[in-house]
Design goal:
Layout lengths: L2 H12 L11 E5 L2 E4 L4 E4 L2 H4 L8 H13 L10 H12 L5 E5 L2 H19 L6 E5 L8 H6 L3 H4 L9 E4 L4 H7 L4 E6 L15 H12 L2 E5 L23 E4 L10 E5 L1 H4 L15 H16 L2 H22 L3 E7 L2 E6 L4 H9 L2 E2 L1 E2 L4 E4 L7 H16 L2
Parallel strand pairs: 3-13, 5-6, 5-7, 7-8, 8-9
Antiparallel strand pairs: 1-2, 2-3, 4-10, 9-10, 11-12, 12-15, 14-15
Helix pairs in contact: 3-11, 4-11, 12-14
The protein binds pyridoxal-5'-phosphate.
The site of pyridoxal-5'-phosphate has 15 residues, from helix 5.
Length: 397
């Protein structure tokens, strides 16, 4: 049995069957590349699904984790630690928010946001205001509250009863949102660009219209930037391009460039609704996670990473448009920064598999959408290489 086969066999025998995995076992990563246990090299346009934004094993993040691990790996939130305050300062200093709650994942960040919205509404708007409106085709996580918030039945099937107090409306449809608001509504929760729903980019004015509706009805606007945040769309946060600010925002994925960490941010006005004992996480704000997040944010903010993402995103989009002109199987291409996609006339699974055989990792967001979320450090040369692999693979469809 090869080394790789051994890794897969061990996992198959002992790990629960929740992931539809590709039969490769990855053992190393550097920049935009990963290697499997047989030594085969891949260009990684999945990047942990929009996680390793600075590239795999970024030296500054590695150095920060190493240093922190020698000093203090974990203490309870019964005590203060310096890295937590430093990361919170960086996040609030570069966003609309005044306060941060730290957790470990996107689902947990959204769970915290749902709880904060309910608590705020309970105290400020009345106990009968608890309903959240979320979007059809959204994705907010896999806990019970977040599968309820997720407007896709396939994630909810078999897990009923769901939570009370959620309603779904079409994304990019302000009129439907306005119509769905009832005396029970306390807020709206949405992604600036729907990621798992198929990289759906709304009209440029959409977020501003949602904000205006929330203001008029005195309800909260919650943005899930778990996938779009930390530079992915060419700004530190995707909402920056919309000219508005949410009341609550959630982050995870790229915040630690691969180290598990999540955050829920809010204005002072809203954050005030949480008091000691209302919410907590043993590992939330763990010193190692904070060291990774601090280094990630510093690298993201210091250099020209965001400009590079915008430039490479534009370059990649142009190349995808040219690919569309050559292959009828592509029905649409779209993207913002380095969050891009192709809609296909056929199921994308075969294309993903053949690309992988040729050394390019991509994945599908929805059966017929190829998603591209490479590390933001990607070069034009690597984009050209990905395009030429796609070109050959599409030729064979
Ligand atoms: N929210 C969005 C927009 C996501 O894309 C995801 C994951 O894909 C989540 C939440 C859930 O994050 P996690 O898997 O870290 O719980």
């Amino acid at each position: 049995m090869t080394k790789e086969k051994k890794i897969m066999a061990l996992a198959e025998e002992h790990i629960m069957n929740t992931y539809r995995r590709t039969p490769i076992a990855l053992v190393k990563g550097e920049g935009a590349r990963v290697w499997d246990a047989n030594g085969k090299e891949y260009l990684d346009f999945v990047a942990g699904i929009a996680v390793c934004n600075l590239g795999h094993s970024h030296p500054q993040v590695v150095k920060a984790i190493k240093k922190q691990s020698k000093n203090l790996m974990h203490v309870s939130n019964l005590y203060y630690t310096k890295p937590q305050g430093e990361v919170a300062e960086l996040l609030t200093g570069h966003s609309f928010a005044d306060k941060v709650f730290f957790c470990n994942s996107g689902a947990e960040a959204n769970e915290a946001a749902i709880k904060l919205a309910r608590k705020y509404a309970h105290e400020n708007l009345g106990a009968d205001k608890f309903e959240l409106i979320t979007m059809k085709d959204s994705f907010h996580g896999r806990t019970m509250a977040t599968i309820t918030a997720t407007g896709q039945e396939k994630f909810q099937f078999g897990f009923t009863p769901l939570l009370d107090g959620f309603q779904y409306v079409g994304f990019n449809d302000p009129a439907a949102l306005e119509k769905a608001i009832s005396p029970k509504t306390c807020g709206v929760m949405l992604e600036p660009i729907q990621g798992e729903g198929g990289v759906i980019i709304p009209d440029p004015r959409y977020l501003a219209l949602v904000r205006e509706i929330c203001n008029r009805h005195k309800i909260l606007m919650i943005l899930d930037e778990v996938q779009t945040g930390i530079g992915r769309t060419g700004k530190l946060f995707a909402y920056e391009d919309s000219g508005i600010q949410p009341d609550i925002m959630t982050l995870a994925k790229a915040l630690g460039n691969g180290f598990p960490v999540g955050a829920m941010l809010a204005t002072n006005e809203v954050a005030r609704a949480f008091a000691p004992g209302n919410h907590a996480s043993t590992f939330g704000g763990n010193p190692l996670a904070m060291a990774a997040a601090k280094a990630t944010l510093e690298v993201m903010l210091q250099g020209d990473m965001l400009e590079h993402c915008q430039k490479m995103g534009g370059y990649f989009l142009t190349k995808l448009q040219a690919l569309k002109a050559r292959h009828q199987v592509i029905s649409d291409v779209r993207g913002k920064g380095l969050m891009l996609a192709c809609s296909l006339e056929i199921d994308g699974a075969g294309i993903v598999k053949t690309c992988q055989e040729r050394g390019l990792l991509i994945n599908c967001a929805g059966g017929k959408t190829l998603r591209f979320v490479p590390p933001l450090v990607i070069s034009a040369k690597d984009i050209d290489m990905a395009i030429s692999i796609l070109d050959v693979v599409l030729e064979g469809t």
